[in-house]
């Protein structure tokens, strides 16, 4: 008989890991102890070699539902005498590496109890257990114990405390547990009547508000949703008008998978995502015959998700129809997480369904899609974050990576570990920058982290770059935007050596001071070489061109035809007055507020304008979504282009596209041409792995075509292709 110390790291706190170990030890009649500490879980047992082997095999193969082991280290220590096996008090160490558990949807056992009339938690909106419920959104510090969460304000009743203290109970050390007697409570506030009701009456009132066409703010796990009846076109129109969101698609929440199948065409893989414990929003092919088209104007895709809290389940069960559920936030600001921040939207909602459990860490809904049976993460947040990623090398210093300016995330790195924050959003307002800083402070506080190196984007005007320069006593490292895009994918797939990277996005500052975005790079972790790019064109009006595709298209027309472009009888020219055309030609000619760009994202905008699909966008990515709708898979031809000396000249493409009579044909050939461009450049580097990343690769059609042509291409899956993956790539550059 020997004494062994087993150190387990991964998602092993707040997921029922200690009672699982206790039950295993009891099964094998082993003596010892198990405890949480700031590194993970420590197990000390007395066992023979054979007993140890059986114990470890069982431990690895029968994990609790939410647990995940990253590393498991075993070493023999000096013999210790034990009289039984115990779960002992949590211990803290100066170094903290334990992973924060994500928020998880209600489990089947809790859902069954929720609707069981003889259960003491019958219809309780916050029912939870060790296998489900809130985690990250309520954590203030590690280790993950109730005293370190916002649940510390709720003193457990005797019945809850009995469950919490029993290692054989499903609710043993389930930090968020409560009941009607001792847990969080609901309150409905209806503005027009200055009415306040609580408990089940609040849910009934909320449903009545929705049935009458009202807009309801609902406090969920990581923030508030704005909710309305998805079958009521007037309610949807009212929400669009009040939120100033004219065409951007809304997500729908539906009662169950059967209701989901009445709204969208769902593959097996998509159904698995919808019903998974993470419950993300999944982008699906819509079958909106039963719902109003204003939910997703001009497109045939819809974002759909199932209820992930008991509160959502109770609302949808009683309402029995789909609801629009969109994040409650002011444009360009983060999701509202408390009643004070929600006040900014008081002219949008008619009532608030509020609860008194504080949201410590805001966390938006995750968004995923499936392309060619591959899962693509578009927004990594609730259910999936924070995430820990292993590096293929060891960091010499503690690092903070500040990401970019759009779809922002941050990351801290130590040893071989990178912890990536949830989606933060665009840093376009004071509120969003404050929220961004709060996410950094949260990681610092929880992990007792102090960076020695801070990585940031090249762009001097990014808020993330400005913040980097506020740090004192640290080394600052600039990381080129598109290099970071490719590195993020390399880390995800543990790629080593050189790769051929295709980075297509909207914008990112290049080494030459121009705006890149149509890049072909040879990369490894040490650096990159830019071997090709889309030939530069001018963005007329600078940032204005991002909102107005017609400006990008006009610039390309001026390049192709000079001032004669003004006489063309095409949609782009018709979108301007004669005075505007003359003024913009002068600006183009003299390069006034017309920065050079090689962006594939802006090229999408230009094509949307040239074929008359979109001249001014109301949300990011609108042009790409509308072009997707026009793609015809039967069209196999493409447009000509020139490729010389590492530059891709698209003038021939522009000249050809304006002659097409059919929008669908023009758009289809454009998509095909992009794939031909990639194939042409890759031909000289085909001995290297093909890695593609950047926001443009969120486009479903482009991604499908790429994977058909290059089935072995590495594309982001767990990490978003957009700028949500930049912080990971920045960290990987610091080897």
How would you describe the overall organization of this protein?
The chain is built from 23 helices and 31 strands. The chain starts with a strand and ends with a helix. α5 (199-211) crosses α9 and α18 (600-610) packs across α19 (622-630). The strands form 5 sheets. Strands 6, 7, 8, 9, 10, 11, 12, 13, 14, 15, 16 and 17 form a 12-stranded mixed β-sheet that branches. A 6-stranded mixed β-sheet has the order 18-21-20-19-22-23, with helices on both faces. The chain has a 6-stranded mixed β-sheet with strand order 29-30-26-25-24-31, sandwiched between helices. 30% of the residues lie in helices and 22% in strands. The longest helix has 20 residues, at 663-682. It is globular and about 90 Å long. β20 (411-414) and β21 form a beta hairpin. It is an alpha+beta fold. Among the domains are: 2-87, Alpha-Beta Plaits (2-Layer Sandwich); 100-264 and 291-365, DHBP synthase; 533-687, ATPase, nucleotide binding domain (Nucleotidyltransferase, domain 5, 2-Layer Sandwich), CATH 3.30.420.
């Amino acid at each position: 008989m020997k004494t062994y110390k087993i150190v387990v790291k991964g998602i092993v706190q707040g997921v029922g890991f200690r009672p699982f170990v206790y039950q295993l030890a009891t099964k094998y009649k082993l003596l010892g102890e198990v405890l949480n500490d700031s590194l993970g879980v420590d197990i000390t047992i007395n066992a023979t070699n054979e007993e140890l082997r059986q114990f470890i095999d069982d431990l690895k193969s029968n994990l609790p539902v939410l647990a995940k082991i990253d590393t498991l280290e075993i070493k023999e220590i000096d013999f210790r005498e034990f009289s039984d096996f115990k779960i002992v008090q949590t211990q803290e160490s100066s170094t903290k590496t334990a992973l924060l558990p994500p928020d998880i949807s209600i489990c089947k056992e809790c859902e069954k109890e929720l609707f069981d009339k003889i259960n003491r938690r019958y219809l309780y909106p916050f029912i939870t257990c060790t296998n489900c419920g809130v985690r990250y959104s309520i954590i203030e510090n590690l280790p993950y114990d109730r005293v370190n969460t916002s649940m510390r304000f709720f003193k457990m009743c005797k019945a809850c405390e009995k469950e919490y203290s029993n290692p054989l109970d499903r609710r043993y050390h389930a930090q968020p547990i409560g009941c009607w007697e001792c847990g969080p409570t609901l309150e409905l506030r209806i503005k027009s009547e200055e009415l306040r009701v609580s408990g089940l009456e609040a849910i009934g009132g909320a449903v009545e508000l929705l049935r009458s066409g009202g807009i309801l703010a609902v406090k969920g796990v990581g923030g508030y949703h704005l909710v309305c009846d998805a079958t009521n076109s007037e309610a949807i129109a009212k929400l669009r008008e009040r939120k100033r969101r004219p065409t951007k698609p809304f997500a729908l929440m539906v009662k169950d998978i059967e209701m989901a199948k009445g709204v969208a065409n769902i593959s097996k893989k998509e159904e698995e995502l919808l019903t998974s414990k993470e419950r993300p929003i999944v982008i699906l092919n819509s079958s909106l015959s039963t719902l109003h088209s204003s939910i997703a104007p001009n497109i045939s895709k819809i974002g759909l998700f199932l209820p992930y809290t008991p509160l959502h389940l109770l609302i949808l069960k009683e309402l029995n129809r789909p609801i629009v559920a969109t994040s409650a936030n002011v444009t360009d600001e983060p999701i509202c997480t408390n009643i004070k921040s929600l006040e900014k939207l008081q002219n949008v909602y008619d009532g608030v369904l509020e609860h008194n459990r504080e949201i410590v860490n805001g966390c938006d809904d995750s968004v995923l899609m499936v392309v060619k049976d591959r899962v693509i993460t578009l927004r990594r947040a609730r259910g999936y974050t924070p995430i820990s990623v292993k590096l293929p090398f060891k960091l010499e210093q503690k690092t903070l990576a500040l990401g970019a300016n759009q779809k922002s995330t941050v990351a801290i790195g130590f040893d071989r570990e990178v912890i990536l924050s949830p989606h933060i959003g665009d840093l376009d307002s004071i509120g969003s920058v404050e929220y961004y800083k709060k996410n950094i402070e949260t990681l610092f506080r929880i992990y007792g982290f102090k960076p020695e190196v801070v990585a940031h984007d090249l762009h001097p005007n990014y808020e993330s770059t400005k913040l980097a320069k506020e740090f004192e006593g640290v080394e600052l490292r600039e990381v080129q935007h598109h290099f970071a895009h490719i590195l993020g994918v390399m880390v995800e797939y543990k790629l080593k050596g050189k790769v051929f990277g295709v980075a297509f996005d909207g914008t990112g500052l290049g080494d030459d001071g121009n705006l890149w975005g149509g890049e072909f790079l040879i990369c490894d972790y040490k650096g990159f070489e830019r071997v090709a790019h889309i030939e530069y064109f001018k963005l007329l009006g600078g940032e204005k061109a991002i909102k107005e595709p017609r400006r990008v298209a006009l610039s390309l027309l001026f390049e192709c035809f000079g001032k004669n472009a003004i006489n063309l009888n095409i949609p782009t020219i018709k979108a301007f007055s004669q005075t505007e055309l003359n003024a913009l030609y002068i600006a183009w000619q003299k390069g006034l507020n017309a920065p050079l760009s090689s962006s594939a994202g802006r090229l999408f905008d230009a094509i949307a304008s040239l074929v008359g699909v979109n001249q001014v966008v109301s949300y990011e990515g609108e042009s790409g979504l509308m072009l997707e709708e026009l793609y015809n898979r039967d069209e196999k031809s493409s447009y000509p282009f020139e490729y010389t000396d590492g530059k891709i000249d698209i003038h021939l493409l522009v000249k050809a596209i304006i002659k097409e009579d059919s929008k669908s044909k023009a758009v289809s050939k454009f998509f095909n041409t992009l794939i031909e461009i990639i194939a042409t450049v890759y031909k000289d580097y085909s001995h290297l792995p093909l890695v593609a990343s950047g926001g443009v690769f969120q486009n479903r059609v482009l991604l499908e075509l790429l994977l058909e042509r290059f089935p072995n291409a590495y594309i982001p899956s767990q990490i978003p292709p957009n700028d949500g993956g930049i912080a990971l790539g920045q960290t990987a550059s610091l080897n």
